[in-house]
Design the sequence.
């Protein structure tokens, strides 16, 4: 099972606290070979010590953000990120958006990369992706599953018991 940890998860991991506990558990399962966890690609200015060994899911290159020798070149015909942005923007709570909008572009790119890569679970604590009004259309685009870290951990643990 392949998981994509979004920017919200990586930030929670960096900040610590209760929210980081299931994320650390998912990373431990990755390191044990039980599952495969990939982080949303982060700019070089953001360093999270605990996950240097975690592979990244690579976004399609954009003019304002790309990773040297590590981006998937986009296509003029590839409008997946635009479709995701349209779903998120069409149902977004503007008060909430003002508080968390800085994470949305990387997470939109991360979800697009998750879908393109055929991963199984997009792991996020961000309500922009978890509310059914957004989640269901995103699942239709190919996200397969969008779960909180706790839900993803339960699903991975359940699958491991079978």
Sequence:
């Amino acid at each position: 099972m392949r998981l994509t940890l979004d920017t919200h998860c990586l930030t929670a991991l960096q900040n610590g606290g209760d929210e980081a506990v299931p994320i650390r558990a998912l990373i431990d399962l990755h390191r044990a070979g039980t599952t495969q966890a990939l982080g949303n690609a982060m700019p070089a200015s953001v360093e999270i010590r605990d996950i240097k060994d975690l592979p990244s899911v690579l976004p399609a290159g954009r003019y304002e953000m790309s990773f040297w020798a590590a981006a998937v070149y986009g296509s003029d015909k590839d409008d997946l990120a635009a479709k995701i942005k349209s779903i998120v923007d069409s149902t977004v709570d503007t008060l909430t958006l003002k508080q968390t909008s800085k994470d949305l572009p990387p997470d939109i790119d991360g979800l697009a990369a998750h879908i393109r890569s055929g991963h199984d679970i997009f792991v996020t604590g961000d309500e922009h992706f978890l509310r059914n009004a957004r989640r269901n259309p995103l699942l239709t685009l190919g996200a397969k599953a969008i779960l909180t870290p706790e839900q993803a951990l339960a699903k991975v643990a359940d699958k491991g018991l079978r």
In short: Residues 2-161 form one domain. The first strand starts at residue 2 and ends at 5.
